[in-house]
């Protein structure tokens, strides 16, 4: 049976398994070109890597494996060059049942006889295939070979640099830079960061070295160091990719790169800043599809989902999402917009910058040089017959006033603000000069939020809370409570955490709070009234996530520091 199935095309197998339809297969074949069928189907949104791998495993009678945290013997890793493994998207896991003549091989496509033949010719060993997703295989190759590949690129660049020492740095032209091993180094840096779920890459010029750090789940981790002589070439390459001026080294510059990593498109915002020892570069990575998620995936409780839905049902008014930079405000707003995005409404956004493109929504980019500020763009938007307006951020009195006026005149306005709490947002708007009676009339709700790191489910360590910790968690000495703390394992890259989840403080504007806003009440008074009506503060929600084992006490301290 397995033999017969191996003669089948991958598309036919996916149709047999019900993963795709005949029509989708025909459409994919028409757009295939030289690409692999699986890649085309994923790019067209018909399926995903996990569904393809699972269907192939069932059809071929092979094992479908997860490579998360897998360990591989060094002897096995040295069997072939990593370039062959990357070319065929496969990784050797070990010898099959101790047989030194047969290698257990995780493959994207176990029907790829060219890949199996190439490995067999080089090693003179047989291949026993198992199936894994492309993403899992590439992450595993990065984990075991990433540093050696990067250092090889560095060595090649050093040799190349030595052979043309007589040339000045300033005379390096674009063609030379695009052919350099530095291209490989920068690409690897971005690809590894994307596969490790990093949100930012920091390339920093220190006195004698270049330090590269990745921000993963909100925390910076040092990944590697290079010789300081590599800095000009790395920065020049990034400037070319981001369409910046490579000859300008004294002024800050901003750019944008679009790059595909494992069939996922990333939008990368680049910032270059001159420092004492050279230019520092920060690249912010965002998946184009990651900002639009299902509300249930954001971390809302059932009660919070009901409140959020009630807020979004208002035909007009202003809804504010608040929190510090990197607290997930944009994701919450985009999620709300995606839900409101139907054929019968006109949604217009004004953003700086536009973080993700959503089909069916009119998005406007702020441009200070063209005098397109938030305020001037908003005035124009109001003449475009909008139903819903999203403002990237309310930064000044003028924008705040126009937003409030727009919400009173029949528009639903959603926006962000940098404040620490939901009640504090009200006083911030009043301090910006918005009239209290107008704000009371227009506000429909405020969501204050933070992101806490999730404890790794594989290695989190149980712990009985101390007396001091029980006081902080507001539990008695008699409560049989177990909390957890981070430990670290291969599956979470020894950090103890994997992923993040939102913690929310949701202030619904009730008639009582409306009258308090109209009377310009203090944020403390508004907070007390809201808590009497059932509002849970950020620290209360974070405490709940500690008690249910989602996060640690140290993460709770970070979220509730303001309180």
Helix content: 40-55%
Rg, please?
27 Å
Order of neighbouring strands in the sheet with most strands? 12-11-13-14-10-15-18
Specify the number of helices.
23
Share of β-strand residues = 15-25%
User: Gap between N and C termini, in Å?
Assistant: 65 Å
Shape: globular
Low-confidence stretches: 168-177
Number of E-type strands: 18
Q: Biggest sheet, open or closed, and with what strands and sense?
A: 7 strands, mixed
Structural class: alpha/beta
Instruction: Write down the overall mean pLDDT.
Output: 86
Quick structural overview:
The protein has 563 residues and is α/β, with parallel strands linked by helices.
Structure description:
By secondary structure, this protein is α/β, with parallel strands linked by helices. Helix content is 40%, strand content 23%. Helix 15 (374-381) packs parallel to helix 16 (397-408), helix 17 packs antiparallel against helix 21 (523-532) and helix 22 (538-547) runs antiparallel to helix 23. The longest helix has 30 residues, at 134-163. The radius of gyration is 27 Å and the shape is globular. Mean pLDDT is 86; it is low at 168-177.
Task: Summarize this structure as a short list of keywords or feature phrases.
563 residues; 6-stranded antiparallel sheet; 7-stranded mixed sheet; single chain; globular; 23 helices; 18 strands; 40% helix; alpha/beta
């Amino acid at each position: 049976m397995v033999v017969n199935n191996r003669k089948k095309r991958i598309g036919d197998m996916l149709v047999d398994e019900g993963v795709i339809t005949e029509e989708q297969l025909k459409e994919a074949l028409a757009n295939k070109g030289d690409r692999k069928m699986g890649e085309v189907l994923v790019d067209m949104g018909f399926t995903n890597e996990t569904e393809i791998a699972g269907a192939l495993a069932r059809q071929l009678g092979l094992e479908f494996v997860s490579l998360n945290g897998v360990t591989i013997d060094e002897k096995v890793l040295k069997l072939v060059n990593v370039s062959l493994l990357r070319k065929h998207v496969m990784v050797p896991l070990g010898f099959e049942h101790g047989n030194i003549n047969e290698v257990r091989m995780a493959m994207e496509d176990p029907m790829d006889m060219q890949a199996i033949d190439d490995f067999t010719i080089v090693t003179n060993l047989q291949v026993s295939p198992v199936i894994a997703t492309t993403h899992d295989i590439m992450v595993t190759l990065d984990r075991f070979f990433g540093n050696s590949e990067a250092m090889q690129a560095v060595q090649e660049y050093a040799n190349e640099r030595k052979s043309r020492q007589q040339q000045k740095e300033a005379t390096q032209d674009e063609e030379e830079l695009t052919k350099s091993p530095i291209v490989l180094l920068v690409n690897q840096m971005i690809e590894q960061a994307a596969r490790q779920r990093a949100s930012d890459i920091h390339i920093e010029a220190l006195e004698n070295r270049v330090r590269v750090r990745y921000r993963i789940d909100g925390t910076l981790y040092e990944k590697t160091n290079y010789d300081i002589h590599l800095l000009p070439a790395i920065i020049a390459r990034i400037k070319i990719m981001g369409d910046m001026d490579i000859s300008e080294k004294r002024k800050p510059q901003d750019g944008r790169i679009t790059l595909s990593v494992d069939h996922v498109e990333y939008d990368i915002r680049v910032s270059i800043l001159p420092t004492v020892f050279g230019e520092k570069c920060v690249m912010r990575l965002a998946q184009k599809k990651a900002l639009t998620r299902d509300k249930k995936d954001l971390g809302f409780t059932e009660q919070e989902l009901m409140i959020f839905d009630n807020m979004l049902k208002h035909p007009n008014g202003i809804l504010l999402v608040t929190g510090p930079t990197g607290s997930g405000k944009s994701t919450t707003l985009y999620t709300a917009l995606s839900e409101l995005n139907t054929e019968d409404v006109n949604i217009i956004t004004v953003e700086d910058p536009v973080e993700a493109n959503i089909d069916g929504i009119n998005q406007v980019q702020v441009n200070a040089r063209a005098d397109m500020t938030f305020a001037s763009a908003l005035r124009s938007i109001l003449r475009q017959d909008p139903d819903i307006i999203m403002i990237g951020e309310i930064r000044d009195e003028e924008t705040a006033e126009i937003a409030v006026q727009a919400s009173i005149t029949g528009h639903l306005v959603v926006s962000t603000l940098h404040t620490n709490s939901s009640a504090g947002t009200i006083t911030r708007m009043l301090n910006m000069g918005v009239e209290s009676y107008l704000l009371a009339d227009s506000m429909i709700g405020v969501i204050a939020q933070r992101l806490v790191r999730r404890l790794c489910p594989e290695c989190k360590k149980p712990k009985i809370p101390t007396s001091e910790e029980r006081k902080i968690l507001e539990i008695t000495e008699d409560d049989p409570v177990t909390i957890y703390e981070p430990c670290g394992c291969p599956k979470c890259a020894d950090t103890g955490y994997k992923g993040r989840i939102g913690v929310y403080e949701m202030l619904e504007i009730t008639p009582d709070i409306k009258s308090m806003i109209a009377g310009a009440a203090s944020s403390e008074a508004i907070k007390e009234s809201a808590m009497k009506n059932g509002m849970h503060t950020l620290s209360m929600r974070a405490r709940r996530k500690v008690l249910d084992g989602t996060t640690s006490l140290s993460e709770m301290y970070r979220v509730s520091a303001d309180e």
